[in-house]
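Operator note (shift B, R.M.): manual run for Transposase requested after the automated queue skipped it. Running by hand, logging everything below so the morning shift can see what happened. Input copied straight from the record, untouched. If output looks odd, do not overwrite the archive copy; leave it for review.
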Amino acid sequence: MYLTLKQQVKYLSKKEFRNLKYLSPIAKNLTNEAIYNIRQYYFKNKKYLSYNENYKILKNSKNYKKLNSNMAQQILKEVDGSFKSFFGLLKLVKNGQYDNKKIKLPKYLAKDGFTTLVIGFVRLKDGMLIIPYSNSFRKTHKEIAIKLPPILKDKKIKEIRIIPKQHSRYFEIQYTYEVEEVQRELNKENGLGIDLGIDNLCTCVTNNGASFLIDGRKLKSINRYYNKINAKLQSIKDKQKIERTTLRQKRIA
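Run finished. Output pasted below as returned.
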C-alpha cells in the first residue's frame, strides 16, 4: 500500500528557492497550454483531444522545454485526467444519468498563479532529493537539493509533489511511498465513541472505560484570527468593488 508524508520545504539557499519559484509558474503555463488545446479542440470538433495528440503539439513549446520531460509529462497526464472525468460525465448526461447543469469544463489556472510540480522519476544523491531539470535549464541554474526525511530511507518513493503555498511564499512537499501492508489482529469487541466539540475538539471514550480529550482551543484561536483578518480584507474589497480573491487573502488561507 501507499502512504503520504507531508513537510514544509526548508533550508533552501536563496538561489534554490528562486529556482523553485521560477519553475512553478512555468508548470502553470504548461498546464494552461494543455487545457487550451483540449478546450479548443472540443469547441471545434465536439471531440476529445487525446494525451498523445496534445503531447505532440506541446513537446516543442517553450514551457515544455524549460521543464524536465518527466515533470512536463506528469502535467499533461493530470490535465488529461481532469478532462477524462469531464467527458465521462458528458456520457452520463447523454444517458440521462447526470444533471447537465452540474458539469463544467476544467478551467484555466490564474494568470499570475503557480501550480504543483509533480516528480514521477525520483533522483537521490547522498540522502538528498535532486529536483529534475531540463538539459537547457541545468546549464544556467543551480540544482535544488532537498534533504530526504530519515523515515523514507530505503523506501520506494512512487511520486513527489511540490506544492506552492500562499502564492509561493513557501512550498510544501508530499512524498508518496510504498510500504508493506501489515495484517493486524483487531478485537472487534472494542469500540471508541467520539463527541466533537469546539474547546474540546474531541472527547473520546472507549467501551472499557478509558477516555481522553483532544484540545481544540488552538485551532479555534487560529480560525478566529483568520476570520478577523479576512473580514477586514473583504471590507476593503467591497469598497473597491473587487470580486476576485486577492493575493493578500490567498496568503492567509
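Quick read of the result: The two ends are 32 Å apart (CA to CA). The chain has three domains: 2-178, 186-215, 217-252.
Leaving this for review. - R.M.
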